[in-house]
Design goal:
Blueprint lengths: L1 H39 L8 H5 L8 H4 L3 H10 L13 H13 L3
Helix pairs in contact: 1-5, 4-5
Length: 107
């Protein structure tokens, strides 16, 4: 009986941790799609109407590629050029995860 209870608790814990990891991985993509995609595009190529009008550099641009993650997080938090600041709209975790997702779009 004791083994069954321990096994059940361990199984529930494992499922909870798995779901938490899946949620954490999708948060960056979800935030990016909600807040960034309208300018930076679905693939990071800044090929949207707004991105083209504002001359947003694509993720594949050498200047963008050489930016560190910390630089991108700071630019997202405080704004850069025509880009608005998101420090009052997103948490630090959301900013970091959306930047991490954006960086995966480099091909």
């Amino acid at each position: 009986m004791r083994m069954t209870i321990r096994f059940t608790i361990a199984l529930v814990m494992a499922l909870c941790l798995t779901n938490a990891a899946c949620f954490a991985q999708s948060t960056g993509e979800t935030t990016y799609k909600a807040k960034c995609q309208s300018c930076h595009g679905a693939t990071g190529l800044a090929d949207t109407v707004i991105g083209l009008a504002m001359k947003v550099k694509p993720v594949s641009d050498p200047e963008v590629r050489k930016c560190t993650e910390a630089t991108m997080v700071d630019a997202t938090r405080n704004g850069m050029g025509k880009m608005q600041a998101f420090k009052d709209k997103l948490t630090d975790a959301e900013i970091r995860s959306s930047v991490a997702y954006f960086r995966t779009l480099v091909k």
